[in-house]
Amino acid sequence: VPVVTVVVAAGSGSRLGARLPKALVELDSVALVRRAVDALLDGGVSEVVVTVPVGHEEAFREALAGTGSRLVHGGATRQESVRLGLAALAAPDDAVVLVHDAARALVPPEVVQRVTSAIVDGADVAVPVLPVVDSIRSVVGGGSEVVDRAMLRAVQTPQGARLGLLREAHEWLRRDGVEVTDDAAACEYRGHRVALVPGHRDAMKITEPVDLVFASALLAERKN
Ligand code: C5P
Hints:
InterPro entries: IspD, IspD/TarI, IspD/TarI_cytidylyltransf_bact, ISPD_synthase_CS, Nucleotide-diphossugar_trans
Strand content: 15-25%
CATH superfamily: Spore Coat Polysaccharide Biosynthesis Protein SpsA, Chain A
Organism: Tessaracoccus bendigoensis DSM 12906
Number of helices: 7
Pfam families: IspD
Bound molecules: cytidine-5'-monophosphate
Site (Transition state stabilizer): 15, 22
Site (Positions MEP for the nucleophilic attack): 149, 205
Oligomer: single chain
């Protein structure tokens, strides 16, 4: 079956403090969105739709030249951007679709393959996760209480499902006016079960300026 992807890149990147949309910020002279799309192509993806912010189409087209990606405008929220991206994919309902944050620009292709394999092997939804290293407290009322971190996982992207299933899940969220933070939660809303596969440190989300410093160090390490 074809493996296709929506790369969400329509965020403003205000927390990164750049004047450009975050996905266009460069790491070692290559835009984050380009690094993300290349990683997905290396991981076996055959059709790429990228959601982009209004007004930056030309810069995205340049950054993605030669990748065969199709650009569509994103929405007001990440969830809306995913829905619009899914609508633009031409693949059949049983295609495997991966939704990926452009901000996770250094995702290793083996993570892409792990998520894909989980869906091909029968999972409804699959997400890459990492153990949580910090001690965690939940704040309730005026106080707080410790949460057993052994039970917790941090969730990364790409998140995978069959295209028909994920489109349907997003349609239901829209109809019901429900907001979720990722695609696994979107599918769970419809009762689908989420499978976990090992994520990777390098699939970190580049959010704040210091994350770019860390990402540069990861790149330098790869070259050695
Ligand atoms: O803001 P945050 O880092 O959580 O966004 C996650 C991803 O979703 C980013 O890659 C961002 O570009 C994308 N996004 C989007 N449309 C929005 C908001 C965020 O495509 N309206």
